[in-house]
Design goal:
The complex is a heterodimer. By secondary structure, chain A is of the alpha/beta class. In chain A, strands 3-2-1-4-5 form a five-stranded mixed beta sheet, sandwiched between helices. In chain A, helix 4 links the parallel strand 2 and strand 3. Chain B is an alpha+beta fold. Chain B is built from two helices and ten strands. In chain B, helix 1 packs antiparallel against helix 2. Chain B is globular and about 40 Å long. The chains are: A alpha/beta, B alpha+beta. At the A-B interface, helix 1, strand 6 and helix 6 of A face strand 5 and strand 8 of B. Strand 6 of chain A pairs parallel with strand 5 of chain B.
């Protein structure tokens, strides 16, 4: 049985832990709202961009040679995995679930005798992948210096990736991130960005005039679309991270509360036991006289 | 007709307009109701949305535009509302484009240099 003093110290320490987790939860809630707004604001552009790419690609079919980023390099031997995670932990299973998906993917590819290259974004994912895949790492992007996700960050990453593709460093690029569903659910996702996957035509056929011609437009448009995919992934990730942290910290706060209740009961019991013991001693002492 | 101006980070405008002036890569153009469906890329320049006698100007750093009979959608790389559009902002844009132009090769370099030229001429228009 721990002494009364020990119990008291213990309760105080759990109380201060609860204060910290509560504060972290509230900070995450505020950041989540901002991240969600940013994702919301970026949506119109992505939707329009997808529409234009689909339109352009479908009216392009059969005419001349498609740009390489769309038709692919004609092989799928070398895979680039872009694993986007957070810079910070304490956000439940957020980082691990993305890493798990990427790891599965990488093992699969290696099992099929394909070559794998890994580009990590965010240090948490890098740390977790390091043990098994360190020899496959080609590059790392650090996000600590950015407070908010700007398009320019995605542009930098995108240009790096496109440059690698131009130099035939890989054939297929897939980005791993977590899609934000709600505070409770984040969905780890693998999305292929190179070669560009063109959605099936929805029948809404536009007869467009192109200026300059289709090929040249596609050459300009596709990199922008790829960069935008990366941007969307980063935004979704930012929102998911805060959502995951918020629910993780909510749980932690609740657990700390429960622990305080339990410890308080133990504390009161032992206090009473001590009082009873003293009383018994006094009474039996008096009786003996 | 409906006019949408979106940048990757946000939607800048979504309004009903009478006509839109666009800095197309192969020349300026004006889109009005019933325009031929068209896709084109933009050079750095002014996008002007006209409603009645009023005109709202935006500066875009390049991008794409989709024109249909009843809508104009501008997908801009970067948008500055006119009041935010000052010489320092442009200097920044020009120096960024200069940097891109210096890293590219062949055809890409031509393209980047053309954009740079457009941005520089835009800057001279503004400072007057």
């Amino acid at each position: 049985m721990p002494s009364l003093k020990d119990l008291k110290i213990r309760i105080e320490s759990v109380k201060s832990t609860r204060k910290i987790t509560k504060a972290m939860q509230m900070v995450a809630a505020a950041k989540l709202r901002r991240a969600q707004e940013a994702a919301e604001r970026a949506r119109p552009y992505s939707e329009k961009m997808d529409k234009v790419v689909t339109n352009l690609a479908s009216s392009f079919q059969g005419e001349g040679s498609a740009p390489k980023v769309m038709s692919g390099s004609g092989s799928d031997q070398v895979h680039l995995l872009i694993v986007a995670t957070a810079e910070r932990g304490l956000c439940g299973g957020f980082n691990s679930s993305i890493v798990r998906l990427a790891r599965q993917h990488a093992r699969n590819l290696i099992g099929q005798n394909k070559q794998v290259k890994i580009l990590t974004i965010g240090k948490k994912g890098r740390e977790q992948l390091k043990r098994e895949f360190e020899s496959y790492f080609i590059d790392h992007v650090d996000l600590t210096q950015y407070k908010i996700i700007r398009f320019s960050i995605a542009q930098e990453i995108g240009e790096k990736v496109l440059d690698l593709f131009e130099h035939n460093e890989f054939d297929v690029a897939t980005v791993f991130f977590s899609r934000f569903q709600s505070v409770i659910t984040q969905d780890p996702t693998a999305q292929q960005i190179i070669p560009v996957e063109v959605k099936e035509d929805n029948g809404e056929k536009g007869f467009y005039d192109f200026e300059p011609d289709e090929t040249e437009l596609l050459v300009d448009l596709l990199p922008q679309a790829i960069i935008n995919h990366i941007f969307t992934a980063l935004l979704e990730n930012a929102a998911s991270e805060q959502g995951a942290r918020m629910s993780a910290m909510d749980n932690a706060t609740r657990n700390a509360g429960e622990m305080i209740d339990k410890l308080t009961i133990v504390y009161n019991r032992s206090r009473q036991a001590a009082i009873t013991k003293e009383l018994i001693e006094i009474i039996s002492g008096a009786e003996a006289l | 007709m409906h006019f949408d101006l979106v940048s990757p980070e946000k939607s800048v405008a979504s309004i009903e307009v009478d006509a839109v002036d666009l800095p197309g890569v192969e020349g300026d153009m004006t889109a009005m109701d019933g325009h031929l469906p068209m896709l084109t890329s933009l050079r750095p320049g002014f996008v002007k949305a006209r409603v009645g006698g009023d005109e709202t100007r935006y500066v875009v750093a390049g991008g794409f535009v989709e024109i249909t009979a009843d809508s104009v959608t501008v997908l801009a790389d970067e948008v500055f509302p006119e009041e935010e559009f000052t010489t320092p902002v442009l200097d920044d844009l020009v120096s960024r484009l200069e940097e891109t132009a210096s890293t590219k090769e062949m055809q890409e370099k031509d393209k980047a240099e053309k954009r740079l030229g457009d941005a520089i001429s835009l800057r001279s228009q503004i400072s007057h």
